[in-house]
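Possible race condition, two jobs.
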Amino acid sequence: MLVKCLIGLVLLLVTVVGWRVPAATRRQFSAVGSLADSHSKYFNKDNSVFVAGGKNGVGYHVIKALSARGISVHTLVHKLESLPLLRDLPGVKIIQGDARNPEDVQRCMDGCGAAITALCSGSGPGKEDRIDYVGNSNVIEQAGILGVERIILVTR
């Protein structure tokens, strides 16, 4: 499971952010390179990408990188305090909502060909309250309902 998460993060960095793998490392991860090529059809100017967890951290940098490449992004924000960072990025559609609400996730994700979720939570008493549990579950479920073909889950 850890290997799959690490490969997913490397794919995210290679495909979306444009991170360059050194030649020696590239030989060790030849399978990652071929997988990254398969992701390029989902992360291009013809597809919108849904991003959850874009307020800061990895999610914000993913949105920024996609925007810089001219890729349309739909992002779900819970609090309006995220707007100043996101509204100046070209091609970013900001929708206010809560990832714990399946209807909000579906409304924001509708029309996207790929989804990236970087949702995480600090502390919470139980799984039912945690954004990383409920929110990520909703992203995965709504992606299936809407026919989104590619999901990348970024965890810490």
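Job #2 (started ~2 s after job #1):
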Amino acid sequence: MINSLFQNSRFLVYVIVFTSFLSSVILYIVSLHILFHLCLSFVMAVPDTDKSGKQLAVTLLMVLDIGLIALVFQITSIALYQFFICKKEMVDSRFLKVLRIHDFHDLKSILMQVAVLILTVMFLGQAAEYGATLETLYFALSVSCVLVAVVFVTKNLRSSSHDKAD
């Protein structure tokens, strides 16, 4: 009975996969909507001051940030589908093959790298919007600490996966 329950519980992953995929689609639509309205406002009034140019740059960085978060949801949904639900081999997924995701270590590594990219984009938005303030320096130091930690963890994940392969 418990064995049957565990075997059928993999279908609960459908909820996570569906939620992640739906979230990615919604975020892609939102970023396209924002970009469309940004293009319309740009055509109506081209930025002519430093302040309006910075505001345009911050808005574009926010659109990029939303797109990267949507990509995280998409990667998560596809990887979880391939790991838990799909009965075919992993080589059938061109998306995961391009990203070189074969197991959870690869998925964690990719997600950490995208998280660092999101933090970098957020920092650039902070720097463009508020300039050289003490809070921006603190934010830069915290992003640097996260970056060092991710590099360390990624390096150790790669070395542990190479040790298992040997």
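Residues 18 and 148 are 33 Å apart (CA to CA).
Logs attached separately.
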